[in-house]
Amino acid sequence: MSNLKEFWEEIRRFGIPKLSDFLIDQKTKELFYKQTRTRTTSNWEVSTPEYLTFSINVSRVAVFLNDIKIMEPNLDRSKPNASFEAKKLFLDYHIKCEAVIIFLVTTLEVYLESVYHIALNKLKINTIDPKYNFQNKEDCKTAFKIIGIDLPNVDNQLWQDIFAAKKEGSIMNLRHRIIHTGLKVFLSYDFTFEEIEEKVLNVIKFISKIETKRRDLKILSSQIVKIFDESLF
Q1: How far apart are CA 50 and CA 32, in angstroms?
Q2: C-alpha to C-alpha distance for 51 and 56, rounded to whole angstroms
Q3: Pair 145, 125: CB distance under 8 Å
Q4: DSSP character for 72?
Q5: Dihedral sign, CA of 176, 207, 223, 7?
Q6: Residue 109: which residues within 8 A CB-CB, separation 6 or more?
Q7: Rounded to an integer, what distance in angstroms lies between the CA atom of residue 106 and that of residue 188?
Q8: Distance between CA atoms of residues 231 and 219, nearest Å
Q9: Could you report the per-residue pLDDT of 193-229, keeping only the tens digit for each?
Q10: Distance (Å, whole) CA 149 – CA 217
Q11: Are strands 19-24 and 31-35 parallel, antiparallel or unpaired?
Protein backbone atom coordinates (compact mmCIF):
# COMPACT_ATOMS: atom_id res chain seq x y z
CA MET A 1 0.00 0.00 0.00
CA SER A 2 1.38 3.39 -0.96
CA ASN A 3 2.39 5.84 1.76
CA LEU A 4 2.77 8.70 -0.72
CA LYS A 5 -0.75 10.09 -0.84
CA GLU A 6 0.39 13.72 -0.57
CA PHE A 7 3.10 13.15 -3.18
CA TRP A 8 0.66 11.74 -5.72
CA GLU A 9 -1.81 14.53 -5.04
CA GLU A 10 0.93 17.10 -5.58
CA ILE A 11 2.18 15.75 -8.90
CA ARG A 12 -1.33 15.40 -10.32
CA ARG A 13 -1.14 19.19 -10.72
CA PHE A 14 1.55 18.57 -13.34
CA GLY A 15 -0.53 16.12 -15.34
CA ILE A 16 1.10 13.02 -13.87
CA PRO A 17 -1.30 10.27 -12.78
CA LYS A 18 -0.53 7.43 -10.42
CA LEU A 19 0.00 4.36 -12.60
CA SER A 20 -0.35 0.76 -11.48
CA ASP A 21 -1.10 -2.82 -12.59
CA PHE A 22 1.08 -2.74 -15.70
CA LEU A 23 0.51 -5.27 -18.49
CA ILE A 24 2.21 -5.55 -21.85
CA ASP A 25 0.87 -7.13 -25.02
CA GLN A 26 3.78 -9.36 -25.97
CA LYS A 27 2.88 -9.27 -29.66
CA THR A 28 2.40 -5.54 -30.15
CA LYS A 29 4.48 -4.39 -27.15
CA GLU A 30 1.62 -2.05 -26.24
CA LEU A 31 1.52 -1.07 -22.58
CA PHE A 32 -1.65 -1.17 -20.49
CA TYR A 33 -2.12 0.12 -16.95
CA LYS A 34 -4.55 1.56 -14.47
CA GLN A 35 -4.25 5.20 -13.50
CA THR A 36 -5.82 7.92 -11.44
CA ARG A 37 -7.29 10.99 -13.03
CA THR A 38 -5.19 14.15 -13.06
CA ARG A 39 -6.21 17.63 -12.03
CA THR A 40 -3.59 19.48 -14.00
CA THR A 41 -3.55 23.27 -13.94
CA SER A 42 -1.75 23.37 -17.28
CA ASN A 43 -4.88 23.10 -19.45
CA TRP A 44 -3.32 20.17 -21.30
CA GLU A 45 -5.98 17.92 -22.76
CA VAL A 46 -3.54 15.34 -24.06
CA SER A 47 -0.07 14.15 -23.23
CA THR A 48 2.86 13.84 -25.57
CA PRO A 49 4.49 10.41 -25.81
CA GLU A 50 7.63 11.89 -24.23
CA TYR A 51 5.71 13.16 -21.21
CA LEU A 52 3.87 9.86 -20.89
CA THR A 53 7.22 8.04 -20.80
CA PHE A 54 8.40 10.56 -18.21
CA SER A 55 5.28 9.84 -16.12
CA ILE A 56 5.87 6.10 -16.26
CA ASN A 57 9.46 6.61 -15.18
CA VAL A 58 8.25 8.76 -12.27
CA SER A 59 6.18 5.77 -11.17
CA ARG A 60 9.38 3.71 -11.15
CA VAL A 61 11.11 6.30 -8.98
CA ALA A 62 8.11 6.35 -6.64
CA VAL A 63 8.62 2.67 -5.79
CA PHE A 64 11.86 3.56 -4.03
CA LEU A 65 10.40 6.78 -2.62
CA ASN A 66 7.61 4.79 -1.00
CA ASP A 67 10.11 2.42 0.63
CA ILE A 68 12.10 5.37 1.98
CA LYS A 69 8.94 6.89 3.44
CA ILE A 70 8.17 3.64 5.25
CA MET A 71 11.71 3.03 6.48
CA GLU A 72 12.67 6.48 7.77
CA PRO A 73 10.52 6.58 10.96
CA ASN A 74 11.91 3.19 12.00
CA LEU A 75 15.59 4.10 11.76
CA ASP A 76 17.23 3.84 15.15
CA ARG A 77 19.29 7.02 15.34
CA SER A 78 20.20 6.62 19.00
CA LYS A 79 23.85 6.93 19.85
CA PRO A 80 25.55 3.54 19.49
CA ASN A 81 27.38 2.00 22.42
CA ALA A 82 30.97 2.13 21.23
CA SER A 83 34.37 3.07 22.61
CA PHE A 84 34.72 5.78 19.95
CA GLU A 85 32.57 8.61 18.58
CA ALA A 86 30.30 6.49 16.41
CA LYS A 87 27.34 7.11 14.10
CA LYS A 88 24.98 4.45 12.79
CA LEU A 89 24.81 3.90 9.05
CA PHE A 90 21.71 2.42 7.41
CA LEU A 91 22.72 0.54 4.27
CA ASP A 92 19.25 -0.48 3.00
CA TYR A 93 17.86 3.01 3.50
CA HIS A 94 20.86 4.72 1.95
CA ILE A 95 20.90 2.45 -1.11
CA LYS A 96 17.24 3.22 -1.82
CA CYS A 97 17.95 6.96 -1.57
CA GLU A 98 20.86 6.56 -3.98
CA ALA A 99 18.62 4.58 -6.33
CA VAL A 100 16.13 7.45 -6.47
CA ILE A 101 18.87 9.88 -7.52
CA ILE A 102 20.19 7.51 -10.22
CA PHE A 103 16.73 6.69 -11.60
CA LEU A 104 15.73 10.36 -11.46
CA VAL A 105 18.69 11.46 -13.58
CA THR A 106 17.98 8.71 -16.10
CA THR A 107 14.32 9.79 -16.25
CA LEU A 108 15.39 13.38 -16.87
CA GLU A 109 17.99 12.42 -19.48
CA VAL A 110 15.57 10.25 -21.48
CA TYR A 111 13.00 13.04 -21.63
CA LEU A 112 15.47 15.77 -22.64
CA GLU A 113 17.13 13.71 -25.36
CA SER A 114 13.83 12.63 -26.91
CA VAL A 115 12.43 16.19 -26.85
CA TYR A 116 15.59 17.53 -28.50
CA HIS A 117 15.53 15.05 -31.39
CA ILE A 118 11.78 15.45 -31.98
CA ALA A 119 12.16 19.24 -32.10
CA LEU A 120 15.01 18.97 -34.63
CA ASN A 121 12.76 16.92 -36.90
CA LYS A 122 9.80 19.22 -36.39
CA LEU A 123 11.83 22.33 -37.16
CA LYS A 124 13.64 20.57 -40.02
CA ILE A 125 16.99 21.55 -38.57
CA ASN A 126 19.89 19.78 -40.20
CA THR A 127 22.75 19.66 -37.76
CA ILE A 128 25.69 17.39 -37.19
CA ASP A 129 24.78 15.84 -33.86
CA PRO A 130 27.81 16.20 -31.58
CA LYS A 131 26.37 13.53 -29.29
CA TYR A 132 25.23 15.81 -26.51
CA ASN A 133 25.41 14.46 -22.99
CA PHE A 134 22.04 15.35 -21.47
CA GLN A 135 23.40 14.94 -17.97
CA ASN A 136 25.84 17.75 -18.68
CA LYS A 137 24.73 21.30 -17.92
CA GLU A 138 26.48 23.02 -20.83
CA ASP A 139 25.55 20.32 -23.34
CA CYS A 140 21.88 20.58 -22.36
CA LYS A 141 21.95 24.35 -22.56
CA THR A 142 23.59 24.30 -26.01
CA ALA A 143 21.32 21.60 -27.44
CA PHE A 144 18.10 23.24 -26.31
CA LYS A 145 19.15 26.66 -27.59
CA ILE A 146 19.21 25.09 -31.05
CA ILE A 147 15.50 24.25 -30.71
CA GLY A 148 14.58 27.62 -29.20
CA ILE A 149 14.44 26.82 -25.49
CA ASP A 150 16.72 28.63 -23.05
CA LEU A 151 16.82 26.12 -20.21
CA PRO A 152 18.26 28.42 -17.51
CA ASN A 153 15.42 30.86 -18.16
CA VAL A 154 12.78 28.14 -17.89
CA ASP A 155 13.42 28.30 -14.13
CA ASN A 156 16.92 29.30 -13.09
CA GLN A 157 16.62 28.08 -9.50
CA LEU A 158 15.48 24.63 -10.55
CA TRP A 159 18.11 24.63 -13.31
CA GLN A 160 20.85 25.18 -10.73
CA ASP A 161 19.39 22.75 -8.18
CA ILE A 162 19.31 20.02 -10.81
CA PHE A 163 22.26 20.62 -13.14
CA ALA A 164 24.96 22.54 -11.24
CA ALA A 165 27.47 19.70 -11.02
CA LYS A 166 29.75 21.60 -8.66
CA LYS A 167 26.93 22.65 -6.34
CA GLU A 168 26.92 20.56 -3.18
CA GLY A 169 23.69 18.58 -3.00
CA SER A 170 22.51 19.29 -6.55
CA ILE A 171 21.00 16.28 -8.28
CA MET A 172 23.80 15.95 -10.85
CA ASN A 173 26.44 16.47 -8.18
CA LEU A 174 24.95 13.70 -6.07
CA ARG A 175 24.52 11.35 -9.02
CA HIS A 176 28.16 11.80 -10.03
CA ARG A 177 29.37 11.16 -6.50
CA ILE A 178 27.16 8.08 -6.07
CA ILE A 179 28.34 6.53 -9.34
CA HIS A 180 32.03 7.39 -9.05
CA THR A 181 32.67 7.53 -5.28
CA GLY A 182 29.79 5.48 -3.90
CA LEU A 183 31.38 4.43 -0.62
CA LYS A 184 32.36 8.01 0.25
CA VAL A 185 28.74 9.11 -0.20
CA PHE A 186 27.55 6.27 2.01
CA LEU A 187 30.01 7.26 4.73
CA SER A 188 29.43 11.01 4.61
CA TYR A 189 26.00 11.94 3.23
CA ASP A 190 22.86 11.84 5.35
CA PHE A 191 19.76 11.53 3.19
CA THR A 192 16.27 12.35 4.43
CA PHE A 193 12.92 11.51 2.88
CA GLU A 194 12.06 15.22 2.78
CA GLU A 195 15.19 15.99 0.74
CA ILE A 196 14.68 13.09 -1.68
CA GLU A 197 11.02 13.94 -2.23
CA GLU A 198 11.92 17.58 -2.89
CA LYS A 199 14.46 16.56 -5.53
CA VAL A 200 11.89 14.39 -7.30
CA LEU A 201 9.34 17.22 -7.22
CA ASN A 202 11.91 19.70 -8.54
CA VAL A 203 12.59 17.52 -11.59
CA ILE A 204 8.85 17.12 -12.21
CA LYS A 205 8.30 20.88 -11.96
CA PHE A 206 11.19 21.59 -14.33
CA ILE A 207 10.08 19.05 -16.93
CA SER A 208 6.51 20.32 -16.70
CA LYS A 209 7.74 23.82 -17.53
CA ILE A 210 9.74 22.53 -20.50
CA GLU A 211 6.66 20.65 -21.69
CA THR A 212 4.61 23.86 -21.54
CA LYS A 213 7.36 25.74 -23.38
CA ARG A 214 7.54 23.24 -26.23
CA ARG A 215 3.77 23.41 -26.61
CA ASP A 216 3.98 27.20 -26.80
CA LEU A 217 6.67 26.88 -29.48
CA LYS A 218 4.72 24.13 -31.28
CA ILE A 219 7.75 21.86 -31.45
CA LEU A 220 5.87 18.66 -30.68
CA SER A 221 5.66 15.48 -32.67
CA SER A 222 2.41 14.71 -34.47
CA GLN A 223 1.71 11.86 -32.08
CA ILE A 224 -0.07 13.80 -29.35
CA VAL A 225 -2.64 11.12 -28.80
CA LYS A 226 -2.14 9.84 -25.29
CA ILE A 227 -5.08 11.12 -23.28
CA PHE A 228 -4.69 11.07 -19.51
CA ASP A 229 -7.92 9.32 -18.64
CA GLU A 230 -8.59 6.08 -16.85
CA SER A 231 -7.11 3.15 -18.78
CA LEU A 232 -8.65 -0.12 -17.64
CA PHE A 233 -8.09 -3.64 -18.89
Answers
A1: 16
A2: 9
A3: no
A4: G
A5: positive
A6: 134, 135
A7: 24
A8: 27
A9: 999 999 999 999 999 999 999 988 888 876 554 444 4
A10: 9
A11: antiparallel
